């Protein structure tokens, strides 16, 4: 058995959309197996993301307690509205 790998996507209608590929070495009307692999976010990635948010909030709280703040009038300095 020979394996082929190529990217595909799921359409908004939930259908598998395959790229236009030519499998010339296969006989026409061959029976094939299709395996769909979907990348998922792992529990560890979820935990890492929550840890990152928690660290950011801790840092912001510490900076506020230490008086390391900027006047609200300066918050938008340097940010373009375009």
UniProtKB/TrEMBL annotation:
This is Uncharacterized protein. It comes from Symplocastrum torsivum CPER-KK1.
